[in-house]
Write a structure and sequence with these properties.
The chain has one helix at about 40-50, and strands spanning about 10-15, 20-25, 30-35. The radius of gyration is 11 Å and the shape is globular. It has one domain (about 5-50). It is an alpha+beta fold and about 50 residues long. The longest helix is centred in the C-terminal third of the chain and has 13 residues, at about 40-50. It has one helix and three strands; from the N terminus they run βββα.
Amino acid sequence: MVMEGGLEMGSIYKRGDVFWIKYDRNGKPYWESSHTDMVTKAERLLKKEERR
């Protein structure tokens, strides 16, 4: 996902039928399952994590 200023904050990818998100916090990468096959729910989860 690309935010204002062109900075990439995280990404969404699919493993099997489930979407996963990847984001960085304090320079460390984190991967987390969205537990859903709906990309909109995965996008919502990624946005939530990016606000932390």
